[in-house]
Amino acid sequence: MPHLTKDELAAFLPHAGSMRLLDRVASWDESSIRCHTATHHDPANPLRRDACLDAIAGLEYAAQAMGVHVGLLDGKPLMSGSIGYVGGLRDVVFGIDRLDDCPAELTIEATRLFAGDQSFLYRFAISSEGRQVMSGRASIFLKQASI
Fold first, then answer.
1. CATH no. for residue 80?
2. In degrees rounded to 5, what are phi and psi of residue 75?
3. What are the pLDDT digits (tens) for 48-105?
4. Is 63 helix (H, G, I), strand (E, B) or coil?
């Protein structure tokens, strides 16, 4: 499927400004998505704490990739009447302590394992220059936004 730029990703994420963490989608299909970013080097990254970006922030990177994938498969932005949230995490493994210590861009990959009625299970992995940053599984749920 076609690549998406940071500007095109905006339609699939409710986040604004520097909280939009993904730079681009390199590839996606019915079951998976691969994204890239260098926002972990940005000193203004809103997930930084005391000038450092802990590896746990990778969960938000993975969640944004999964959210974009759900929106792409549905053919519409997630913001159109629904809110996505992470319902649970399993088997999360960290290969590093800090994201900002990764000198190269991050690659975020997510594979859909299950899709139900407004619920999804994904396996995700983040790497940098082939080095595992983190991996795990996450359940994602969509809820209709109340007006």
1. 3.10.129.10
2. 75, 15
3. 998 899 999 999 999 999 999 988 887 766 545 667 778 899 999 999 999 999 999 9
4. helix
- The single-letter DSSP state of residue 58 is H
pTM of model > 0.85: yes
Phi-psi region of 145 (alpha: psi -120 to 50; beta: other; left: phi over 0): beta
CA distance 114 to 55: 26
Are β-strands 131-144 and 119-128 bridged in parallel, bridged antiparallel, or unpaired?
antiparallel
Per the structure block, which two tokens stand in for 78? 């997630």
In total, how many domains does the chain have? 1
Domain coverage including residue 133: 4-144
The span from the CA of 143 to the CA of 124, in Å, is: 22
